[in-house]
Amino acid sequence: MNTPLVVAATVAAVVLAVLGGLSTALRRRTGTAHLAATGVLEVLLVVQAVLAGIELAGGERPAELATFLAYLGSVVLLPVAGLLWARSEPTRWAGTVLAVAALAVAVMLWRLLDLWAVTGG
Question: Which one of 75, 95, 107, 109 has the fewest CB atoms closer than 10 angstroms to its CB?
Fold first, then answer.
């Protein structure tokens, strides 16, 4: 796991959460800024997943491999699911959906890093 990439993805997730919270507070629907922020976050998450996959293929294995892989797969899919749900919910609450998904991603990223570091990966 790449710590600077985790930090960058966490920043992107927090920015998305703030955008979602603002759109809810201002009673606005999600727009292009939300889409772009989700795209940036997703790119960072896919890069992180590819790097983790390369390290796993290189022989490094966390002790809790199944848990690590479940988190890794989920963290990549969560922003997409949040965006799809937000786009299908054409009310001001769509921003809240994105904010919750983004905050969950931020927490999951640090849990992934913890799983990798603690288990000697």
Answer: 107
pLDDT tens digits for range 57-92: 998 888 889 999 999 999 999 999 999 999 998 788
Question: How many domains does the chain divide into?
Answer: 1
pLDDT at site 92: 80
Residue 41 near residue 102 (C-beta atoms within 8 A): yes
Q: Residue 121 belongs to what H/E stretch?
A: none
Q: Cα separations (Å) of 21 from 13, 61, 117?
A: 12, 38, 32
pTM: 0.91
Percent of the chain with pLDDT over 70: 98
Instruction: Give the domain range for residue 49.
Output: 3-116
Q: Contact at 8 Å (CB) between 119 and 64?
A: yes
- Phi/psi at 30 (5° precision): -70, 150
Contact 66, 82 (CB under 8 A): no
